[in-house]
Amino acid sequence: MTSLTPSPKQLRLIIETDDFDSALRFYRDVLGMPEQLAFATEGDDRVAILHAGIATIELATPTHAENIDDVEGAPHSPGTLRIALEVDDTEEAVAVAHRAGAEVIAPPVKTPFQSLNARVQGPAGWQVTFFQELETLEERASRDGFTTDDARTR
Q1: pLDDT in tens, 88-105
Q2: Residues sharing a CB contact under 8 Å with residue 125, sequence separation 6 or more, in sequence order
Q3: Alpha carbon of residue 36 to chain centroid
């Protein structure tokens, strides 16, 4: 598929926080996101650009977001900002975050869509979902419910 619109090269999520040191420690040191060089002036002008692997955008209706909350066992709170990070080991990621002081909102649970999900409360009001894929995209392609939005029956 050829598009006349240029494709983005990078997704950058910007989290503004009053407790920069806590957020930096959590995302860089606890979650292991490597930091790259970034420009700031002096004093309280601080920034850190952290790598989180491949970035995707998940668009979801309020109904879908509520369904995911139900599956994960997390309370539904509309409008809550959430980051989802794919990890090799959800249980270990939650344990590391919890030892670093993050509140566990929902412990690891195997989802109907074959991932192991858990959620913690991160800094600056953001929730962090850890997910571990339990099957490949190719395996999912043969299962009911997995399709693109334009092919989905309504």
Answers
A1: 999 999 999 999 999 999
A2: 80, 81
A3: 20
Question: Quick check: 14 pLDDT over 90?
Answer: no
CATH number for the domain formed by residue range(s) 58-151: 3.10.180.10
Buried (b) or exposed (e) across 57-80, using 16+ Cβ within 10 A?
eeeeeeeebeebbebbebeeeeee
Mean pLDDT of 62-73: 92
Span 101-150, pLDDT tens digits:
999 999 999 998 899 999 999 988 899 999 999 998 888 888 887 888 77
Distance CA 36, CA 143 (A): 40
Pairing of strands 115-121, 103-110: antiparallel
Q: Hey, what are 3's tokens? A: 């598009």
Q: Round to whole Å and give the CA distance between 74 and 22.
A: 24
Residue ranges of domains in the chain: 58-151
91 token code pair = 């249980």
In the predicted structure, residue 1 carries a pLDDT above the cut 80: no
Q: CA dist 45 to 13, 19, 38, 48, Å?
A: 18, 13, 11, 11
